[in-house]
Structure formats: C-alpha cells, structure tokens
Amino acid sequence: MSKYTPEAFDAQAHDALNDAQLRHNFRGAMDYLREKRYDAFPDAAEEKAVRDRAEAIRQRCLSKLPDLLEQLETNCTRNGIQVHWAETPTEANTIILNIARQHEVKTIVKGKSMVSEEVGFNHFMAEHDIRCFESDMGEFIVQLDGDTPSHIIMPAIHKNVQQVCDTFAANIEGFEPTLDVDQLIQTGRNAMRKLYQEAEMGLSGVNFAVAETGTLCLVENEGNGRMCTTIPKVHVAITGIEKVVEFLSDVPPLYSALTRSATGQHITTYFNMISSPRKAGERDGPEEVHLVLLDHNRTQAYQDEELRKTLQCIRCGACMNHCPVYTKIGGHAYGTVYPGPIGKIISPHLLGIGATKELITASSLCGACAEVCPVRIPIPDMLLRLRHESKQPPNPGAKPLQGQQSAAKTLESAAVRGFRLLATHPTLFHGSAYMATKVRNLIPNHLGAWTQCRVHPTPAKASLHELMKQRQSAQIAAAKGEK
Fold first, then answer.
1. Domain(s) of CATH 3.40.50.10420: residues in the chain
2. Which of 213, 335, 352, 450 has its CA 20 to 30 A from that of 465?
3. Alpha helices, DSSP H only, in 145-219?
4. How far apart are CA 240 and CA 253, in angstroms?
5. In whole angstroms, how far apart are CA 115 and each of 68, 107, 284, 314?
6. Domain 41-300, CATH 3.30.830.10 — does that match?
7. 316 and 120 in contact (C-beta within 8 Å)?
8. Are 91 and 84 in contact (CB under 8 A)?
9. pLDDT in tens, 420-462
10. How many CA atoms lie within 13 A of 193 on its CB side?
C-alpha cells in the first residue's frame, strides 16, 4: 500500500519541493508532454471542434447513465461477458477473489488499470496468497520498487533513465546496467514474457464500455493489455460506472481527444475491442470474461448536477501536465491514486472531504487545467464548490457530501462573522479602518503561512474615505481662496 496519504499533503509537498532530482525529472517530462499535445492540435478551430464533440458525448452519456448501465449489462451478458456490480473497493476485490478461487488462480498478470490501484487490488490479493504482476512498463517499474504510480498515464514519470537502470539492477537477476532506453525496455519485456503464459488470470481496466454492443475498449501503446486479455484463460475487466458510452460511434471522437491530449498521438499503437470470450473455432482469447463495475461513491458526484461533471473525465492526464502545482511536486505528494487537478475533484468523493481537504486548496485556480481538458471539465469551479462544501453545512434539503463541513474552523468562522458585522455597519467599519491606520506599524512581519511567500499586509496611513475627505476639504479651501 502507498506510504503517502492525502492527510500528509503539506509535508509531502514540502519534501517534493526540496528534492532537486525529482523536480528536474518532472520539469523535463512535463515540458515534453505539453509540447506533444501542442503539436497534436496545430489548428485551434479543430481543437475546439474535438473538445466540443467530446464534451457533448460525455454529457449525453452521463445524462442517461442509469439506463446505459442496464443496457451495457444486458448486451454484455448476451455476448457471454459476466457482469458484476460493486459498491465499494472491498466488494470489488472480493468479487474478483471469488472468481480467482473458482479457477484456482495463483498468478494474475495485469494490464494498466487505475481502478485496480483505487481499490488496492494487488495488496488485497497478496493477503490471500495470489500474486499480481504489472505488465505495463511504468507500472512494472514502480512495482519493482514497491512504489505507486505518480501519474495516471505514465506511472514512472518521476524516474529518469539512471533511476530505472538502478531499479532493474536491484531487482532483475543477470541485468547488465545500461542507459540505452531500448535495452531497458527489452529487459522489462523479457522479464514479463513468461508471466503471460503462466498466469491463470488476466486483469485490465476499461477506457470505454459501449452500451449499444456490450464491447469493452482498451487503449494502449505496448501490447501488454492485449496479452493480458488474450492469453490467460480468465479475463477480468474492472472499471468505474462512469466509463460507459451510448453508441459505438461515440468511441472514435473520444479516442481522438484522449490520445492527443494524453501523449500527443493521433492514434495509439493498439486499440482493443473485447465483446465476448473465445468462441468456437477461434484460436485465441480467454474462456471467460468478467466485467466488474465499481461505484465507490461515484453516485455521490452523479446526484449533483454540477459535481456530475467530474465524471466526464476520460483519464488523459492533460490537466496534470499543465498544472503549476503538479509539475512542481509530482503525483506522490497528493497521497491519492488520482493526483493533480482531476484528483483534487474526484478524491473528495472517493475518500471523503475530511481526508482530502488539503488537496482542494492546493491550487492557484489559474485555469490551465480547464483550458486543456478534452471534455471541458470546469475544474477551478469544482474546486471552489468543494472548498465551500468543506466549510459550510449542506443547503436545506440537499444530501450532505461525505465529510461535509470537515474543514470548518471556529476561529475562521468567527472572523468571517466579525467582518460581516463591520461591513454592514458603516460606523463600525469606518471606526475600525481609522484605528487600523493608527496601529499600522504594530502589525507583525510574520503572519503564519500567509507570509511564507507574501509580503505582510500594512494598512495605509489614511483610509480612502479619509483621503477623499481631505481632498474635498482642500478643494473647498482652494475655491474660497480664489474668491
């Protein structure tokens, strides 16, 4: 399990800022990814059209989500895919554990799946003596380190070539150190090759689940996803309930928006479409396919029309690559499976506002994330909404969010009430402003965290009201003198 927690965000961010190598690694990686995305959208009009269409598709599908989920289950079942519903991470893990036990599974080989990270799948299976091996190259590297992903698209982006070489040297027998990237990739492939043949089960995520046809779509560049879903006798796919789309024709526009926003590619190396287990006469494919649909408080976001936009996300990672906070501290500092801007708005639903209240304030609200989001999620607006919910009680008749009002502070509330009193009573307001000008030199230079990166506030020698009064008196006096 991760050694990082969202509750320790401040300390983790501080450590990341003091790690010169980490910051150097992220600086180069983020510059590269931003440039790739820029090159993928050379025409501003085309970019707008791609984003407009992707946003419209996601909003339409989310508006019909309950019905589409039922349709997906019906068509998957008709195709021979067994569908399971999980309300919590524990329930999802237990469902897959039971499937594994039915087939006497001892080894599971995994394609990339952030939802499996979300539910703590590897750790849960290890507790029941089932080994899980990551086959995505980035996931493979961080697993060797006993680490966790720091990015939803490129899990090992926090490491440079030398650090990857050191990881292989410490964990792969017979490895000869090299800084040649192609050789490092080949080393990883060779280490994984037998796993596909030995594993009794393969596990994957899902990029798009098509309700119309009962099809599971997987986007990848390395081919490991196809190996995991084809060679083992049992394939289990796990995904959040929001990943369903209505029509097969919805996939190409979303696919274009996803790949260009994520890695700057117009198309990935592999695009997999899985609609059934192996059929009679087919040479490959699993004998069983299972789909686990996870809620994990996604319905909490769904029930609110504004917060529902969180679920539009197609997990491209563009918001992270352009965020001035994420690019300085990386993903581990957040202490959550989904870091960066998207993590700040989805983690409060998954984990509760109480555990993530520090994350929703870790933003400059510059809007860079919203400017590049391929489905136009208004992340800054969502952060402001969550900040409000973290300190205020729910509106009358509204269902409270998990952890509602957990960031409320008595002193802060008293200060706001005091300012409201001053601001609504002119005599008190002007009297206080006058007093502030007289004690201006008594204000301390250090006012907690506020003055760590700001100059402490100093009231002017005279308030605007006083200055205008003085000007008016001077004008009157000048007018009398002229007469």
1. 41-300
2. 450
3. 161-171, 181-198
4. 20
5. 20, 19, 26, 13
6. no
7. no
8. no
9. 998 999 889 888 888 888 888 888 888 777 787 888 788 888 8
10. 7
